[in-house]
Write a structure and sequence with these properties.
The protein is an alpha/beta fold. It has 14 helices and 7 strands. The longest helix is centred in the C-terminal third of the chain and has 34 residues.
Length: 373
């Protein structure tokens, strides 16, 4: 005999009413929610694309970023573009945030990271950030190897090697390479690569970001200083993110200045933290009292008072005792003080000093000079 209480045994419920489609859909949605709650949470990735006047390639970049496995959010920060970059990015399926004027790549990344943090789902780990350039186009899908390196906890900051993984040349790249080698004994091939993926913890360690072209070098140094892992991953990106004319001497000097300023700021911060730690270590108890110091002090204070007596009763007893120093002082004062009835002793003045005033000598010299009348 079939059990009418079992929903899978009979198509009818108690009372003879058949199950409707709405009831079945409600049960399926409830089971799906329960299975999703029981499933292990995996770290998802948000693709953060910074674009400025990239109407020609922004749509292809967004579509390629959405095709990367593990990316569930594509955010485009329109940094004050004068063309229809934001409209094309929105039509391609991206969430668009726009600056009213050009604030720079650093401000755009900070704005995009804050928007991604607001869109994180409750109960799930925060999204990792995949930094892409708006000019990549279809080559943006080549950044896919960076995703598993971060989501599988292999590294905290994955730097993408473009152009076949060749060692970057130039004065700015050499300066950043030497600074990173000095900080970690690791020599990167492309320390200024803009294509990179990092966890939220690594991004917060790099806040505030360095300005200008020193963003990548400062980020890498901050993540290394925080004790996190940094590695380079080869990506199939043969197209450079920025295809412009050859840099002039002034632009190269500006780039070198930004990199050197980021390196100097991180070096000064590390030196300050080391000096502060050394000073604190030299202080007693490292600047704070140990946990057992207060308890030992309370125990010593409790031993001086007998059990059953209050501290108010113990104070008069301690006031009756006169210290030895006070006794010695009182004995010395008794020896030096004279009796009250004794007359004061006055030393007689010397006769020479009293009898001969200072003005007497000039008067004696003037007397013989007067003529007799």
């Amino acid at each position: 005999m079939e059990n009418p209480a079992d929903p899978d045994a009979s198509p009818a419920v108690a009372g003879g009413a058949p199950k409707t489609g709405a009831t079945q859909r409600r049960r399926r949605s409830t089971k799906a929610k329960a299975n999703a709650a029981e499933a292990p949470t995996e770290t998802s990735v948000a693709a953060l694309i910074v674009a400025h006047d990239q109407a020609r390639r922004i749509a292809a970049t967004v579509r390629a970023a959405r095709a990367i496995p593990g990316v569930d959010l594509v955010l485009v920060v329109d940094d004050g573009s004068t063309d229809n970059t934001q409209d094309l990015a929105r039509k391609a399926g991206a969430v668009v945030v726009r600056h009213s004027h050009n604030r720079g790549r650093t401000e755009a990344i900070e704005t995009g990271a804050s928007v991604v943090a607001m869109r994180d789902l409750p109960g799930r780990p925060p999204r990792a950030l995949l930094l892409l350039d708006g000019a990549l186009g279809n080559y943006a899908i080549g950044a896919a190897p960076l995703i598993p390196a971060v989501t599988e906890s292999v590294t905290d900051l994955a730097i993408g090697l473009t152009a076949g993984g060749k060692t970057a040349a130039g004065v700015s790249s050499s300066a950043a390479r030497k600074a990173i080698e000095r900080a970690s004994n690791w020599v990167p091939r492309q320390p200024l690569s803009r294509v990179r993926c990092l966890t939220r913890e690594a991004f917060e360690a790099a806040i505030p970001l360095a300005r200008g072209d020193g963003l990548e070098a400062g980020m890498t140094l901050d993540v290394l200083h925080a004790g996190l892992l940094v590695s380079e991953v080869e990506c199939e990106i043969l197209h450079k993110p920025i295809r412009k004319a050859k840099r002039t001497t002034a632009q190269r000097l500006v780039r070198l200045r930004d990199v050197q300023m980021a390196i100097a700021a991180r070096r000064a911060r590390a030196l300050l933290s080391t000096t502060t730690g050394a000073v604190v270590d030299r202080l007693p108890f490292g600047g704070t009292a140990p946990d057992g110091a207060d308890q030992s002090a309370d125990a010593a204070a409790g031993e001086s008072v007998a059990p059953g007596e209050s501290t108010l009763e113990a104070e008069p007893a301690s006031s009756k005792k006169v210290p030895a120093t006070k006794k010695r002082a009182s004995s010395r004062t008794k020896k030096t003080l004279a009796p009250a009835n004794a007359s004061p002793k006055i030393k007689p003045a010397a006769p020479d000093k009293v009898a001969t005033p200072k003005k007497a000598a000039p008067q004696a010299k003037r007397a013989p000079s007067k003529e007799p009348q």
